[in-house]
Amino acid sequence: WKKTIKVAVSGAAGQISNHLLFMLASGGVFGLDQPISLQLLGSERSREALEGVAMELEDSLYPLLREVKIGIDPHKVFKDADWALLIGAKPRGPGMERADLLDINGQIFQEQGKALNEVASEDVRVLVVGNPCNTNALIAMENAPRIPRKNFHALTRLDENRAKCQLALKAERFYTSVTNTCVWGNHSTTQVPDFVNAKIGGEPAEQVINDDKWFKEDFTPKVATRGGALIKKWGRSSAASTAVSVADAIKSLTTPTPEGDCFSTAVCTDGNPYGIAEGIIFSMPCRSKGDGSYEVIDDFIIDDWLRAKIKESEEELLKERACVGHLIPN
Ligand code: NDP
Protein backbone atom coordinates (compact mmCIF):
# COMPACT_ATOMS: atom_id res chain seq x y z
CA TRP A 1 0.00 0.00 0.00
CA LYS A 2 1.03 3.56 -0.60
CA LYS A 3 1.40 5.97 2.31
CA THR A 4 -1.97 7.47 3.33
CA ILE A 5 -2.47 10.99 1.98
CA LYS A 6 -4.13 13.58 4.15
CA VAL A 7 -6.70 15.73 2.41
CA ALA A 8 -8.19 18.69 4.26
CA VAL A 9 -11.50 20.07 2.98
CA SER A 10 -13.21 23.28 4.15
CA GLY A 11 -16.92 23.94 3.62
CA ALA A 12 -17.18 20.19 4.10
CA ALA A 13 -20.89 20.29 4.94
CA GLY A 14 -21.73 22.30 1.80
CA GLN A 15 -23.17 21.22 -1.53
CA ILE A 16 -19.95 20.77 -3.53
CA SER A 17 -18.34 18.75 -0.75
CA ASN A 18 -21.40 16.53 -0.58
CA HIS A 19 -20.40 15.22 -4.00
CA LEU A 20 -16.64 15.57 -3.78
CA LEU A 21 -16.01 13.79 -0.47
CA PHE A 22 -17.52 10.56 -1.76
CA MET A 23 -15.46 10.74 -4.94
CA LEU A 24 -12.31 11.23 -2.85
CA ALA A 25 -13.14 8.39 -0.45
CA SER A 26 -13.93 5.95 -3.25
CA GLY A 27 -10.51 6.31 -4.88
CA GLY A 28 -11.95 8.08 -7.92
CA VAL A 29 -9.57 11.03 -7.57
CA PHE A 30 -6.21 9.89 -6.17
CA GLY A 31 -6.44 6.32 -7.46
CA LEU A 32 -7.66 2.93 -6.35
CA ASP A 33 -4.35 2.09 -4.65
CA GLN A 34 -4.12 5.30 -2.62
CA PRO A 35 -5.37 5.23 1.00
CA ILE A 36 -6.77 8.57 2.12
CA SER A 37 -7.55 10.38 5.33
CA LEU A 38 -10.14 13.18 5.25
CA GLN A 39 -9.81 16.16 7.59
CA LEU A 40 -13.01 18.16 7.40
CA LEU A 41 -13.33 21.79 8.42
CA GLY A 42 -16.67 23.26 9.41
CA SER A 43 -17.89 25.96 11.76
CA GLU A 44 -20.27 26.36 14.70
CA ARG A 45 -23.00 26.83 12.06
CA SER A 46 -22.34 23.50 10.44
CA ARG A 47 -21.15 21.37 13.35
CA GLU A 48 -24.14 18.99 13.39
CA ALA A 49 -24.23 18.72 9.59
CA LEU A 50 -20.54 17.92 9.56
CA GLU A 51 -21.07 15.10 12.05
CA GLY A 52 -23.74 13.81 9.66
CA VAL A 53 -21.30 13.93 6.72
CA ALA A 54 -18.72 11.96 8.71
CA MET A 55 -21.38 9.37 9.64
CA GLU A 56 -22.33 8.89 5.98
CA LEU A 57 -18.70 8.53 4.94
CA GLU A 58 -18.06 5.94 7.64
CA ASP A 59 -21.23 4.02 6.80
CA SER A 60 -20.05 3.72 3.19
CA LEU A 61 -17.25 1.33 4.25
CA TYR A 62 -14.80 2.64 1.66
CA PRO A 63 -11.73 0.39 1.81
CA LEU A 64 -9.35 3.29 1.04
CA LEU A 65 -10.79 5.67 3.65
CA ARG A 66 -8.53 5.29 6.68
CA GLU A 67 -9.81 8.13 8.84
CA VAL A 68 -12.38 10.94 8.94
CA LYS A 69 -11.58 13.81 11.29
CA ILE A 70 -13.84 16.81 11.76
CA GLY A 71 -13.26 20.12 13.47
CA ILE A 72 -13.82 23.87 13.44
CA ASP A 73 -10.25 25.06 14.09
CA PRO A 74 -8.14 25.22 10.91
CA HIS A 75 -4.98 25.01 13.02
CA LYS A 76 -6.05 21.50 14.02
CA VAL A 77 -7.86 20.36 10.87
CA PHE A 78 -5.05 21.36 8.46
CA LYS A 79 -2.38 19.50 10.49
CA ASP A 80 0.06 17.72 8.14
CA ALA A 81 -2.34 18.08 5.18
CA ASP A 82 -0.86 17.05 1.81
CA TRP A 83 -3.76 18.69 -0.03
CA ALA A 84 -6.10 21.47 1.13
CA LEU A 85 -9.31 21.92 -0.82
CA LEU A 86 -10.73 25.24 0.33
CA ILE A 87 -14.38 25.20 -0.65
CA GLY A 88 -16.15 27.02 2.19
CA ALA A 89 -16.94 30.70 1.62
CA LYS A 90 -19.78 33.05 2.38
CA PRO A 91 -22.10 33.28 -0.59
CA ARG A 92 -22.86 36.68 -2.09
CA GLY A 93 -26.17 37.92 -0.60
CA PRO A 94 -28.71 40.31 -2.12
CA GLY A 95 -27.44 43.88 -2.34
CA MET A 96 -23.93 42.86 -1.29
CA GLU A 97 -21.12 44.68 -3.08
CA ARG A 98 -18.23 42.71 -4.53
CA ALA A 99 -15.86 44.61 -2.24
CA ASP A 100 -17.86 43.47 0.85
CA LEU A 101 -17.68 39.87 -0.32
CA LEU A 102 -13.96 40.23 -0.97
CA ASP A 103 -13.43 41.53 2.54
CA ILE A 104 -15.57 38.93 4.38
CA ASN A 105 -14.17 35.99 2.48
CA GLY A 106 -10.71 37.48 2.48
CA GLN A 107 -10.69 37.30 6.28
CA ILE A 108 -11.56 33.59 6.12
CA PHE A 109 -8.69 32.95 3.69
CA GLN A 110 -6.26 35.07 5.67
CA GLU A 111 -6.90 32.89 8.73
CA GLN A 112 -6.73 29.68 6.71
CA GLY A 113 -3.52 30.76 4.95
CA LYS A 114 -1.90 31.40 8.34
CA ALA A 115 -3.10 28.03 9.62
CA LEU A 116 -1.72 26.21 6.56
CA ASN A 117 1.56 28.02 7.05
CA GLU A 118 1.81 26.80 10.62
CA VAL A 119 0.61 23.21 10.44
CA ALA A 120 0.22 21.81 6.91
CA SER A 121 2.82 19.69 5.13
CA GLU A 122 5.48 22.07 3.75
CA ASP A 123 4.67 20.87 0.23
CA VAL A 124 0.87 21.03 0.62
CA ARG A 125 -1.07 21.70 -2.63
CA VAL A 126 -3.84 24.18 -2.04
CA LEU A 127 -6.87 24.45 -4.33
CA VAL A 128 -9.27 27.30 -3.63
CA VAL A 129 -12.85 26.87 -4.83
CA GLY A 130 -14.76 29.33 -2.61
CA ASN A 131 -15.43 32.59 -4.41
CA PRO A 132 -14.00 35.01 -5.36
CA CYS A 133 -11.55 32.12 -5.71
CA ASN A 134 -8.60 33.83 -7.46
CA THR A 135 -8.28 36.57 -4.89
CA ASN A 136 -9.05 34.23 -1.98
CA ALA A 137 -6.16 32.04 -3.19
CA LEU A 138 -3.92 35.12 -3.39
CA ILE A 139 -4.73 36.03 0.22
CA ALA A 140 -4.08 32.48 1.44
CA MET A 141 -0.80 32.36 -0.50
CA GLU A 142 0.41 35.72 0.81
CA ASN A 143 -0.32 34.63 4.38
CA ALA A 144 1.59 31.36 4.01
CA PRO A 145 5.21 32.30 3.23
CA ARG A 146 6.54 28.86 4.28
CA ILE A 147 4.63 27.16 1.45
CA PRO A 148 5.91 27.57 -2.16
CA ARG A 149 3.80 30.14 -4.04
CA LYS A 150 3.54 27.68 -6.94
CA ASN A 151 1.50 25.33 -4.75
CA PHE A 152 -1.56 27.61 -4.67
CA HIS A 153 -4.32 27.17 -7.24
CA ALA A 154 -7.80 28.62 -7.78
CA LEU A 155 -10.31 26.47 -9.61
CA THR A 156 -10.97 27.36 -13.27
CA ARG A 157 -11.29 23.78 -14.42
CA LEU A 158 -15.09 23.98 -14.38
CA ASP A 159 -14.83 26.86 -16.86
CA GLU A 160 -12.54 24.77 -19.08
CA ASN A 161 -14.97 21.84 -18.94
CA ARG A 162 -17.84 24.15 -19.89
CA ALA A 163 -15.85 25.54 -22.81
CA LYS A 164 -15.01 22.04 -24.07
CA CYS A 165 -18.66 21.04 -23.82
CA GLN A 166 -19.77 23.98 -25.99
CA LEU A 167 -17.05 23.33 -28.60
CA ALA A 168 -17.98 19.65 -28.79
CA LEU A 169 -21.69 20.43 -29.17
CA LYS A 170 -21.11 23.00 -31.89
CA ALA A 171 -18.69 20.75 -33.83
CA GLU A 172 -20.97 17.72 -33.29
CA ARG A 173 -18.01 15.76 -31.95
CA PHE A 174 -17.51 13.90 -28.69
CA TYR A 175 -16.02 15.81 -25.73
CA THR A 176 -12.83 13.79 -25.73
CA SER A 177 -11.90 15.13 -29.17
CA VAL A 178 -11.60 18.65 -27.74
CA THR A 179 -8.10 19.35 -26.39
CA ASN A 180 -5.68 22.18 -25.62
CA THR A 181 -8.52 24.35 -24.30
CA CYS A 182 -7.47 26.98 -21.80
CA VAL A 183 -9.67 29.42 -19.93
CA TRP A 184 -7.53 32.43 -19.02
CA GLY A 185 -7.88 34.88 -16.17
CA ASN A 186 -10.34 35.34 -13.36
CA HIS A 187 -13.10 32.88 -12.45
CA SER A 188 -15.66 35.60 -13.19
CA THR A 189 -17.46 36.92 -16.24
CA THR A 190 -14.18 38.44 -17.49
CA GLN A 191 -12.75 34.92 -17.96
CA VAL A 192 -11.36 34.22 -21.43
CA PRO A 193 -12.22 30.85 -23.00
CA ASP A 194 -9.49 30.40 -25.60
CA PHE A 195 -10.80 29.22 -28.99
CA VAL A 196 -7.60 30.38 -30.72
CA ASN A 197 -5.42 27.55 -29.37
CA ALA A 198 -8.17 24.95 -28.79
CA LYS A 199 -8.16 21.83 -30.96
CA ILE A 200 -10.93 19.53 -32.10
CA GLY A 201 -9.80 16.13 -33.36
CA GLY A 202 -6.25 17.54 -33.44
CA GLU A 203 -7.22 20.42 -35.80
CA PRO A 204 -7.50 24.08 -34.76
CA ALA A 205 -11.04 24.67 -33.43
CA GLU A 206 -11.31 27.80 -35.61
CA GLN A 207 -10.78 25.66 -38.73
CA VAL A 208 -13.24 22.97 -37.65
CA ILE A 209 -16.02 25.41 -36.69
CA ASN A 210 -14.99 28.32 -38.95
CA ASP A 211 -17.48 30.86 -37.56
CA ASP A 212 -15.76 33.86 -35.99
CA LYS A 213 -19.05 35.51 -35.04
CA TRP A 214 -20.14 32.38 -33.13
CA PHE A 215 -16.82 32.18 -31.24
CA LYS A 216 -16.89 35.82 -30.20
CA GLU A 217 -20.59 36.52 -29.72
CA ASP A 218 -22.03 33.17 -28.60
CA PHE A 219 -19.34 30.85 -27.31
CA THR A 220 -17.37 33.37 -25.22
CA PRO A 221 -20.29 34.90 -23.27
CA LYS A 222 -22.08 31.55 -22.96
CA VAL A 223 -19.11 29.95 -21.19
CA ALA A 224 -18.47 33.02 -19.05
CA THR A 225 -22.09 33.30 -17.84
CA ARG A 226 -22.83 29.58 -17.56
CA GLY A 227 -22.67 29.69 -13.74
CA GLY A 228 -25.33 32.41 -13.54
CA ALA A 229 -27.54 30.63 -16.09
CA LEU A 230 -27.42 27.47 -14.01
CA ILE A 231 -28.38 29.33 -10.82
CA LYS A 232 -31.47 30.66 -12.65
CA LYS A 233 -32.54 27.13 -13.61
CA TRP A 234 -31.64 25.29 -10.39
CA GLY A 235 -32.00 28.01 -7.78
CA ARG A 236 -28.52 27.12 -6.49
CA SER A 237 -25.02 27.13 -7.89
CA SER A 238 -23.43 24.18 -9.66
CA ALA A 239 -22.36 21.52 -7.18
CA ALA A 240 -21.98 18.13 -8.91
CA SER A 241 -20.16 19.49 -11.98
CA THR A 242 -17.96 21.62 -9.72
CA ALA A 243 -17.01 18.55 -7.69
CA VAL A 244 -16.18 16.71 -10.93
CA SER A 245 -14.00 19.62 -12.02
CA VAL A 246 -12.15 19.63 -8.68
CA ALA A 247 -11.43 15.93 -9.25
CA ASP A 248 -10.25 16.76 -12.79
CA ALA A 249 -8.02 19.56 -11.50
CA ILE A 250 -6.36 17.21 -9.01
CA LYS A 251 -5.96 14.43 -11.58
CA SER A 252 -4.34 16.89 -13.99
CA LEU A 253 -1.61 17.49 -11.40
CA THR A 254 -1.18 13.85 -10.40
CA THR A 255 -1.10 12.28 -13.88
CA PRO A 256 1.12 13.31 -16.83
CA THR A 257 -0.49 15.72 -19.32
CA PRO A 258 -0.79 14.09 -22.76
CA GLU A 259 1.53 15.51 -25.43
CA GLY A 260 0.05 18.58 -27.13
CA ASP A 261 -2.61 19.10 -24.46
CA CYS A 262 -2.96 21.47 -21.51
CA PHE A 263 -5.15 22.10 -18.47
CA SER A 264 -6.35 25.37 -17.02
CA THR A 265 -5.59 26.34 -13.46
CA ALA A 266 -5.29 29.75 -11.85
CA VAL A 267 -1.81 30.11 -10.40
CA CYS A 268 0.59 32.82 -9.33
CA THR A 269 1.73 34.97 -12.27
CA ASP A 270 5.27 35.52 -10.94
CA GLY A 271 7.65 35.03 -13.90
CA ASN A 272 4.87 34.14 -16.38
CA PRO A 273 5.78 34.09 -20.08
CA TYR A 274 2.82 36.22 -21.28
CA GLY A 275 3.60 39.60 -19.68
CA ILE A 276 0.64 39.36 -17.30
CA ALA A 277 1.12 41.50 -14.17
CA GLU A 278 2.98 39.58 -11.46
CA GLY A 279 1.59 38.86 -8.00
CA ILE A 280 -1.94 37.82 -8.94
CA ILE A 281 -3.61 34.42 -9.33
CA PHE A 282 -4.48 34.07 -13.01
CA SER A 283 -5.67 31.09 -15.00
CA MET A 284 -3.16 30.01 -17.66
CA PRO A 285 -2.46 26.90 -19.76
CA CYS A 286 -0.39 24.41 -17.78
CA ARG A 287 1.16 21.01 -18.15
CA SER A 288 2.27 18.48 -15.50
CA LYS A 289 4.59 15.49 -15.28
CA GLY A 290 2.11 13.99 -12.83
CA ASP A 291 4.12 14.63 -9.66
CA GLY A 292 1.76 17.30 -8.26
CA SER A 293 3.69 20.19 -9.82
CA TYR A 294 3.15 21.99 -13.15
CA GLU A 295 4.69 24.37 -15.61
CA VAL A 296 2.97 27.19 -17.49
CA ILE A 297 3.03 26.42 -21.23
CA ASP A 298 4.87 29.27 -22.94
CA ASP A 299 3.97 28.91 -26.62
CA PHE A 300 0.25 29.67 -26.80
CA ILE A 301 -0.62 32.07 -29.62
CA ILE A 302 -1.96 35.36 -28.25
CA ASP A 303 -3.79 37.24 -31.02
CA ASP A 304 -5.30 40.72 -30.66
CA TRP A 305 -8.66 39.36 -29.45
CA LEU A 306 -7.07 37.24 -26.70
CA ARG A 307 -4.69 40.03 -25.71
CA ALA A 308 -7.51 42.54 -25.17
CA LYS A 309 -9.68 40.05 -23.25
CA ILE A 310 -6.79 38.86 -21.08
CA LYS A 311 -6.04 42.50 -20.26
CA GLU A 312 -9.61 43.07 -19.02
CA SER A 313 -9.42 40.07 -16.70
CA GLU A 314 -5.98 41.14 -15.48
CA GLU A 315 -7.31 44.63 -14.69
CA GLU A 316 -10.22 43.13 -12.74
CA LEU A 317 -7.85 41.01 -10.65
CA LEU A 318 -5.56 43.98 -9.97
CA LYS A 319 -8.63 45.88 -8.70
CA GLU A 320 -9.60 42.93 -6.51
CA ARG A 321 -6.08 42.83 -5.10
CA ALA A 322 -6.27 46.53 -4.30
CA CYS A 323 -9.51 45.92 -2.34
CA VAL A 324 -7.84 43.33 -0.08
CA GLY A 325 -4.50 45.04 0.47
CA HIS A 326 -5.21 45.18 4.22
CA LEU A 327 -5.32 41.34 4.33
CA ILE A 328 -1.94 40.88 2.62
CA PRO A 329 1.19 41.26 4.78
CA ASN A 330 3.97 43.45 3.33
P1 NDP B 1 -22.67 25.94 0.19
O1 NDP B 1 -23.43 27.17 0.52
O2 NDP B 1 -23.38 24.65 0.06
O3 NDP B 1 -21.51 25.69 1.23
C1 NDP B 1 -20.63 26.67 1.51
C2 NDP B 1 -20.02 26.42 2.86
O4 NDP B 1 -19.29 27.58 3.11
C3 NDP B 1 -21.00 26.28 3.95
O5 NDP B 1 -21.24 24.92 4.23
C4 NDP B 1 -20.30 26.98 5.08
O6 NDP B 1 -19.68 26.01 5.86
C5 NDP B 1 -19.17 27.74 4.47
N1 NDP B 1 -19.07 29.12 4.94
C6 NDP B 1 -17.89 29.67 5.28
N2 NDP B 1 -18.08 30.91 5.72
C7 NDP B 1 -19.39 31.18 5.64
C8 NDP B 1 -20.16 32.33 5.97
N3 NDP B 1 -19.61 33.45 6.46
N4 NDP B 1 -21.49 32.25 5.78
C9 NDP B 1 -22.05 31.11 5.28
N5 NDP B 1 -21.33 30.01 4.95
C10 NDP B 1 -20.02 30.04 5.13
O7 NDP B 1 -21.83 26.31 -1.11
P2 NDP B 1 -21.24 25.41 -2.28
O8 NDP B 1 -20.63 24.17 -1.70
O9 NDP B 1 -22.29 25.27 -3.32
O10 NDP B 1 -20.13 26.40 -2.85
C11 NDP B 1 -18.99 26.72 -2.09
C12 NDP B 1 -18.20 27.83 -2.75
O11 NDP B 1 -17.75 27.43 -4.03
C13 NDP B 1 -18.97 29.13 -2.99
O12 NDP B 1 -18.12 30.23 -2.66
C14 NDP B 1 -19.22 29.13 -4.48
O13 NDP B 1 -19.37 30.45 -4.99
C15 NDP B 1 -17.94 28.48 -4.95
N6 NDP B 1 -17.99 27.93 -6.30
C16 NDP B 1 -16.86 28.02 -7.06
C17 NDP B 1 -16.81 27.51 -8.33
C18 NDP B 1 -15.56 27.62 -9.15
O14 NDP B 1 -15.57 27.16 -10.30
N7 NDP B 1 -14.47 28.17 -8.65
C19 NDP B 1 -17.97 26.84 -8.93
C20 NDP B 1 -19.10 26.74 -8.03
C21 NDP B 1 -19.10 27.27 -6.77
P3 NDP B 1 -19.23 26.23 7.35
O15 NDP B 1 -20.39 26.85 8.09
O16 NDP B 1 -18.93 24.85 7.75
O17 NDP B 1 -18.04 27.13 7.31
UniProtKB/TrEMBL annotation:
Taxonomy, superkingdom: Eukaryota
Domain Lactate/malate dehydrogenase N-terminal: from-to ranges: 5-153
Primary subcellular site in the record, as a coarse category: plastid
Catalytic activity: (S)-malate + NADP(+) = oxaloacetate + NADPH + H(+)
Molecular function terms from GO: L-malate dehydrogenase (NADP+) activity
Record-level GO BP terms: malate metabolic process
Keywords, comma-separated and alphabetical: Chloroplast, Disulfide bond, NADP, Oxidoreductase, Plastid, Transit peptide
Domain Lactate/malate dehydrogenase C-terminal: residue ranges: 156-324
Protein name: malate dehydrogenase (NADP(+))
Source organism of the structure: [Myrmecia] bisecta
Taxonomic lineage of the native organism: Eukaryota, Viridiplantae, Chlorophyta, core chlorophytes, Trebouxiophyceae
Range within the parent protein: 85 to 414 of 432
